[in-house]
Design a protein that fits this description.
By secondary structure, the protein is of the alpha/beta class. Helix content is 54%, strand content 11%. Strand 2, helix 6 and strand 3 form a beta-alpha-beta unit. Helix 3 packs across helix 11 and helix 5 packs parallel to helix 10. It is globular and about 45 Å long. Bound molecules: adenosine-5'-triphosphate and magnesium ion. Magnesium ion (MG) binds next to helix 9.
């Protein structure tokens, strides 16, 4: 790990970058993942590297969706595993969700590596290697999922998901929670709940909301979901990025 002084004005951003580099070095993150990170950083810079109020609300709604789901699954790719491994495990625990490794550039070896990495960060059961079902409408490799995982889920968290796959999952009728810094990305556009925030901030924020919401009666959690306006959330993120405020 490179040593970055905590006083550096862009400490968090540089730390994030090094985590992705490390991920690539350890065969967890793909080279494509580096490019995705760069795109994300540009949007985060424009957002002021902070969680805007509409993103905080979306994170709360997403936590509510996970809590009320019959079968919630958190999808993990190489960037997610490199950036927030223990935070994903904590979110899964707080919402009794399952974790499934699901890769755009899928290789069994990388799935194994990511599973091991997540286990080192406290996960016990990890799905993704059975790959006995297919998401309709996608080509073979991109379509693979576990029959008793994402395929069966009613609510899925897909952070930094590719637009095509996000659309195909939405077409299966799933409630889709997307974390993506680009409010114009197709993934965010197709999400039931788009969270326009850096995954580094969004995942622990969702866990915090989940721990709070799970103390409440179910009707109250449901009303958090009912009050959400996805169009408004996307519009206010775009406005924040364009105006720089
Ligand atoms: P499409 O319009 O098809 O969705 P895309 O913009 O999603 O295309 P990719 O580069 O594959 O294309 O996706 C990477 C996405 O992940 C980008 O939208 C980027 O903003 C987002 N992203 C990257 N790093 C992070 C991060 N740390 N937190 C949140 N989002 C991120
Ligand atoms: Mg996208």
């Amino acid at each position: 790990m490179v040593d970055i002084p905590e006083s550096h004005p862009r400490y968090e951003s540089l730390l994030t970058r090094h985590r992705i580099e490390d991920g690539v070095e350890h065969g967890i993150t793909s080279q494509q993942g580096l490019i995705a990170q760069g795109r994300g950083e540009a949007f985060d810079y424009l957002l002021g590297e902070q969680t805007i109020p509409s993103a905080d609300e979306a994170a709360r709604v997403a936590a509510a969706e996970l809590l009320l789901a019959d079968h919630p699954v958190l999808s993990v790719n190489g960037n997610v595993a490199a950036l927030v491994p223990s935070e994903i495990v904590e979110l899964a625990e707080a919402t009794t969700a399952e974790i499934e490794v699901n890769l755009f550039n899928r290789t069994d070896e990388r799935i194994e590596r990511i599973s091991t990495h997540l286990r080192e960060h406290g996960a016990d059961t990890i799905k993704g290697l059975t790959a006995d079902e297919r998401i309709p409408g996608l080509d073979h490799e991109r379509a693979k999922v576990d029959g008793d995982g994402i395929y069966d889920a009613d609510v899925v968290l897909v952070p930094l998901e590719d637009g095509d796959r996000a659309e195909a999952l939405a077409e299966m009728g799933k409630t889709e929670l997307v974390i993506d810094l680009n409010p114009l990305s197709r993934s965010a556009e197709t999400a039931t709940v788009p969270i326009i925030d850096n995954i580094i901030r969004a995942v622990p924020n969702m866990t915090r909301h989940a721990r709070e919401l799970r103390q409440l009666p179910e009707e109250d959690v449901q009303s958090v979901i009912d009050a959400f306006d996805r169009e408004k959330a996307l519009a206010s993120a775009e406005e924040a990025i364009r105006s720089g405020e």
